[in-house]
């Protein structure tokens, strides 16, 4: 009886912790990394909550990304000690110690050959051993090479060969050009992209001391045949084990766990729907930017609120700490919000024009702010001199006196 009472007491303490975590979580404002950390804590203590993995979500990567970190080199040496393939210990030590914080090789291949006084065949054999270790993709030359290694290790033979031989073409994401160069059909290109995206270009980030600087996007924006596609990514898909609940539903503590599980799922669903809805409206407004590389269109919180029906504060919280992935880069969603000048011109258009004017100016006689203002007016872009100074400072462009070339 005593042991039973002690068990119930521990269970209540854990439940209290879960409720505190969930109620303190601002689902709309917090970024996806913070959300995932709390999700993992609840997963570890809530018996009714389970993680289901959709195509665009890596369960193992999720679990590892929020777990306690160990040294990458410690793990590699541990795997090396269990390696049954023949290798030179000094050579492997050199390779492991030469890895940078991202788990990439710090030097060019030729430098390894020279420093170690070995031929390419011996180096490749030892690199092959390193590439067989976890995390998959360690010991690559860079992020692209890491994806190639992962495709090879995962036996994605066709994707491995194509990406290795046509990476420059494939990275353009230009379907017509890829079809022309590889002879692939659209369905085959889609599958190729899927397998490439299933790889992590920075597989060793979980070990990096600077991991907190890594940003996880909430959505992926892609352009295909003049269509803009928005896909949620890095979103944990949770399910509730109703069969288990049927067996214990008379227990009040278990009911609280069950309610917590539904509370978390409902709020995550509402969060993701809101982000997707706001992002869809924002991308629709900025469609020219994604389709034709036009300047960003003037768009404010007020305009976006009017477009979506949400309050401005909701829009602001939705865009806070949210990012999108586009053409292999990650950008803040807020970046798609663009103010406009008193005359109604887009600040993005004016900034781009300022950059072009400064880039093409006579370096011995650089343009003053007043001259830039006049040239902008010739381009039918209107703003004040004070705005020119403000934008120039935001663009880190020095004043004309500091830009003047010294003979």
From TrEMBL:
The answer on whether this UniProt entry bears the keyword Protease reads no
| Lineage top rank: taxon | Bacteria
Q: Name one GO molecular function term.
A: nucleotidyltransferase activity
All copies of domain RNA polymerase sigma factor 54 DNA-binding, residue ranges:
254-404
Query: Is DNA damage a UniProt keyword of this protein?
Result: no
Gene3D superfamilies per UniProt: Homeodomain-like, RNA polymerase sigma-54 factor, core-binding domain
User: Which Gene Ontology terms of cellular component type are present?
Assistant: DNA-directed RNA polymerase complex
Annotated RNA polymerase sigma factor 54 core-binding domain ranges read: 64-242
UniProt keyword list? DNA-binding, DNA-directed RNA polymerase, Nucleotidyltransferase, Sigma factor, Transcription, Transcription regulation, Transferase
**InterPro entries the record matches:** RNA_pol_sigma_54, RNA_pol_sigma_54_core-bd, RNA_pol_sigma_54_DNA-bd, RpoN_core-bd_sf
User: Record's PROSITE patterns?
Assistant: SIGMA54_3
Q: Output the Pfam families linked to this UniProt entry.
A: Sigma54_AID, Sigma54_CBD, Sigma54_DBD
Which one GO biological process term can you cite for this protein?
A: DNA-templated transcription initiation
In the record, the note on similarity to other proteins reads: Belongs to the sigma-54 factor family.
Q: What is this protein called?
A: RNA polymerase, sigma 54 subunit, RpoN/SigL
């Amino acid at each position: 009886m005593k042991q039973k009472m002690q068990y119930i007491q521990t269970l209540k303490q854990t439940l209290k912790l879960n409720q505190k975590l969930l109620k303190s979580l601002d689902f709309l404002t917090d970024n996806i990394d913070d959300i995932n950390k709390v999700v993992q804590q609840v997963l570890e203590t809530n018996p009714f909550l389970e993680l289901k993995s959709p195509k665009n979500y890596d369960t193992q990567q999720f679990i590892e990304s929020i777990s306690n970190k160990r040294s990458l080199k410690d793990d590699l040496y541990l795997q090396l000690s269990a390696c049954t393939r023949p290798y030179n210990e000094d050579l492997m030590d050199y390779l492991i110690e030469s890895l940078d914080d991202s788990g990439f090789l710090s030097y060019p291949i030729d430098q390894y050959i020279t420093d170690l006084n070995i031929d390419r065949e011996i180096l490749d054999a030892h690199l092959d051993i390193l590439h067989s270790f976890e995390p998959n993709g360690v010991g690559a030359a860079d992020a692209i090479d890491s994806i190639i290694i992962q495709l090879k290790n995962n036996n994605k033979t066709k994707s491995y060969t194509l990406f290795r031989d046509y990476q420059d073409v494939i990275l353009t994401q230009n379907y017509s050009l890829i079809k022309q160069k590889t002879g692939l059909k659209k369905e085959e290109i889609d599958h190729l992209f899927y397998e490439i995206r299933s790889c992590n270009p920075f597989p060793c980030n979980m070990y990096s001391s600077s991991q907190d600087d890594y940003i996880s996007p909430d959505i992926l924006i892609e352009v295909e045949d003049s269509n803009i596609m928005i896909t949620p990514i890095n979103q944990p898909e949770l399910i509730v084990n109703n069969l288990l609940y049927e067996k214990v539903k008379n227990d009040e503590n278990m009911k609280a766990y069950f309610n917590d599980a539904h509370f978390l799922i409902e709020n995550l669903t509402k969060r993701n729907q809101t982000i997707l809805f706001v992002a869809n409206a924002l991308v629709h407004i900025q469609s020219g930017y994604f389709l034709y590389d036009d300047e960003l269109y003037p768009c404010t919180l007020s305009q976006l609120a009017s477009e979506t029906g949400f309050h401005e504060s909701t829009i602001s919280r939705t865009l806070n700490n949210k990012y999108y992935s586009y053409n292999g880069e990650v950008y803040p969603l807020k970046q798609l919000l663009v103010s406009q000048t008193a005359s109604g011109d887009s600040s993005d258009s004016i900034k781009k024009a300022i950059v072009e004017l400064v880039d093409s100016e006579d370096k011995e006689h650089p343009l003053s702010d007043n001259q830039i203002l006049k040239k902008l007016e010739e381009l039918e872009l209107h703003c004040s001199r004070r705005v020119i100074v403000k934008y120039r400072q935001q663009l880190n462009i020095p004043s004309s006196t500091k830009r003047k070339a010294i003979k």
